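INTERNAL AUDIT FORM
Audit reference: QA-55
Scope: verify that the stored structure record matches its stored sequence.
Auditor: D.O.
Record contents follow.
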Amino acid sequence: MKILIVDDELAVKGLVKQIFKKEIKNKIFEFDFAFSAEEAIDILHEKKSSDVSLMLADINMPGISGLQLAKVMKEKYPHIRVMILTAYGDKNNTKAAKDQGVTDFFIKPIDFELLKEKLLEIQNQRIGIQSP
C-alpha cells in the first residue's frame, strides 16, 4: 500500500523509515513524503495518483493547511483515504476535518505503534484479510 505523508517537520521522514523498516522491506508499505501541502498536490498531479491509497497530513503547515488539503483531496482524489496528524486535537478542527472526509486523527507526539496497527488494519481490509 502506497502512503503519502505530508508534514513540514523533516524528522518525520526519518522516524517513519525507521519505525516501518520491516514493513518497507517486506513491501507491505511504500512511503512518499511531501513537506508541504503544495508539494503533496504536485506529487499527486505528476505521479499516478491512483497508486496512492492513503495520505497522512499534518494539520498545521505553512501555506495550505492540512484541512485545506483534505478539502482538495475530497474534491480531486476521493479514492485516497485521508488521515490527520496534529498537535491540535480541538473539536473545531476535528469537525472541519470530518466534513472533508478525514477518517482518523493521530495526536502528536504520534504513537507509532498505534499508527502501525491502524495502517496494517487498513492494508488487511484492502487485501481481504479479516482482523481478529
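Auditor finding: record pair retrieved intact. The chain has a mean pLDDT of 90.
Action required: none
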